[in-house]
Amino acid sequence: IKNFLFVGAFRDDEVNDEHPLACQLKFIGESVPITRIKTTNISKTSLNDFVSDVLHMPPSSTTSLAELVYRKTGGNGLIATQFIQTLWYEGSLYFLLDSNKWTWDIKAVEAKSIPEDAVELLVEKILQLPSAARYILQYLSCIGSSCHESTLGLITGQVLVSGPFPALDLIIEEGLLIKEGIEYKFAHDQIQLAAYSLIPVNKRDCVHLQIGSMILKHASKERMDSVIFIAVDQLNRGTKFITDEDQKVQLANLNLRAGEKAMSLGTFSSAVAYLKSGIDLLERDSWAKIYDLSLQLHSSYA
């Protein structure tokens, strides 16, 4: 491919020399040039520039605060940002109307403990949000790093373009989600991880099932084709909670539909997974009761 530039990012502590990505990069590097740029945490000076810019104050005035933030966060951009916001939430960082500038309680900032993990800090922030906002973040975290506006509407049962949605607006205002056109994206993958961690492990599959059920309930026949993968992925996570035979047949049909669509797109590994899930949902006497569906699933899977 001519005139093509691909930009990617990964955490080097999660990709060793035997990792598939590392092997693929080595293979690609034998035929095309690869430029590697190693990013590090923010320097103390850069962090002070950031604090200065956020508070609209000269760098010389924010040095004491920036040094404390740097000492506690090690220059991690995500943690530093969330820590500064936490200081504001708790009143250690506040705005003086009479002098029209920001100030801070240096002793309170020094005393403020900070979790070692960014996820823990983000969990604390999410827990401070209203229940409606937490609900949205948790449900979105089950879907992935991003979500189409209309899909979010199916999950919440609200048409987002019809009017204000205070809980969603608050999440965006807090910097946890980013709206790009008609897409909502987590501002950072650690935010998605934090939101998902708030769902008890023993309830996660049930929540996935609820999400899939809501998509089925609210999606029109025309809309269903565009959300088939999301709906089926969610429903398949909760199959152990499905005991009604008719519901199993319905989901087996949806897996067949998703499998056929995946094959038409050339994603054969996904197609195989959907078809296998559909077959697993069939009862032993399915050939007698639902011959056509059983034949289609097994024929496509073969």
TrEMBL record:
Superkingdom: Eukaryota
InterPro entries the record matches: Hybrid_Histidine_Kinase (IPR053159)
Protein name: Uncharacterized protein
Species whose genome carries this gene: Ditylum brightwellii
